[in-house]
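Same chain as my last thread, 200 residues:
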Amino acid sequence: MLGKFFKKPGPELGDRVPPGQHLTNGFPVLTYGDTPQLSTDEWEFKVWGLATPKTFTWKDFMAMPQHEFTADFHCVTRWSKLDVKWTGVKVTDFLQQVELDPKAVHVMEHCYGGYTTNLPLEDFAREENFFAHTLFGEPLPAEHGGPMRLVVPHLYAWKSAKWINGLEFLDKEESGFWERNGYHKRGEPWAEERYSNALF
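reply #2:
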C-alpha cells in the first residue's frame, strides 16, 4: 500500500504533516454505514439545545458570505491530504445567525444517517472552520459528505462531520458516535489523540 497509494512525507513537510501520518495520492473515502443521498432541495439544517431553535434551508446557507478555503486534512487512520480546496461558509459567519445561551460550552454535530460527533465550543467557533459544499470546484460528492459537511482542519477528520444537518448546543461534554466507541474526545493530530486512553 505504501508507495502506491501513500508516501512518507519529506522533512520539508515536518511542520504540516503530524506524527504518524502518510500522504495520500488520492482522497480516500471512509464511512460507517450507508451513504445518504440528498438533494439540496430537501436538505435542511437545525439548531437547538442551548440556542434559540432555528431551521436553515440550502438557500439560507447560500445567502451567507461564501469563501474559498485551502486546508490540510488529517484522518485518524494515518493518512493526510494537503492543500484540499473547498468552498463554503465560515462557522463564524454562520454563528452570527444563531442566538446562543451563555451556558453553551459544547456542540454535538448531528448528521443525516444518525452519525454524531462532539466538539468544545472553542474548537468549533474558530475562524478557520467552515461548512463546505464544494470540493475542488465541484459540488461536494455524497461520498465526501455532500451536499454539505463541516470541516475542522485542526482536528482529525472524524470531527469534520459528513452530511451534517444540525447542531445541538450543550452545557457539558457529551460523546458522539466514535467517541463512545473508543476514539479520543478531542482528536488533536499533533498530539496523536487518536483513541481513548481509558480503553488501552
